[in-house]
Recover the amino acids of this structure.
């Protein structure tokens, strides 16, 4: 006698999508599949931290049982992983435990420009650009207010001295590092020329 065994559901192409940085929201991405086309039920999820990025070193994150997870400051330099179990509303259920890859949490890069200087026209001085993040070298772009051209800089120096000789207000456009192609930019730098000396001829 042959008996048909109903197959359990599965989450195909199961991965985590998102940016693994503080305050970013990441979440499960998958395609539900059931051989018998049984409708999907409510799947279960559990998020984990690991110091090594291995499942033998997993630590369950308390309360993190939703499909999405918001990266916390305490996750920095840890790896984040997700276990999921597929459920169907009928037929054989639940499915097997499925495990994602591990993803390391880093800080998004940031850049702050500062400085208010006066120089002689034609001379050069520096503004300060302070760079933070976990994955140097950084790249940033800046613009002089009132112009449209952006100028790119690449550096491994977290306290970068930006050479300037044009008068105006300097603004950062964007910043990136080895891992992230975006970050936070703030601040302004100001360059002005000393007034030209004047002379009055009297007779």
């Amino acid at each position: 006698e042959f008996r048909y065994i109903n197959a359990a559901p599965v989450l195909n192409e199961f991965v985590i999508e998102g940016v693994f940085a503080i305050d970013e929201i990441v979440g499960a991405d998958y395609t539900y599949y059931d051989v018998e086309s049984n409708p999907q039920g409510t799947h279960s999820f559990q998020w984990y931290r690991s110091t090594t990025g291995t499942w033998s070193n997993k630590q369950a994150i308390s309360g993190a049982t939703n499909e999405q997870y918001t990266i916390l400051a305490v996750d920095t330099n840890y790896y984040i992983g997700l276990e999921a179990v597929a459920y169907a509303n009928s037929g054989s259920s639940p499915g097997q435990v499925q495990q994602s890859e591990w993803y390391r949490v880093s800080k998004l890069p940031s850049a702050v420009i500062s400085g208010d200087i006066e120089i002689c026209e034609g001379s050069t001085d520096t503004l300060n650009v302070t760079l933070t993040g976990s994955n140097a070298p950084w790249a940033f772009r800046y613009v002089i207010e009132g112009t449209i051209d952006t100028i790119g800089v690449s550096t491994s120096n977290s306290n970068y001295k930006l050479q300037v000789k044009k008068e105006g207000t300097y603004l950062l456009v964007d910043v990136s590092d080895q891992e992230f192609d975006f970050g936070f930019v703030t601040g302004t730098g100001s360059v002005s020329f000393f007034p030209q000396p004047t002379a009055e001829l009297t007779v």
Observations:
- The two ends are 126 Å apart (CA to CA).
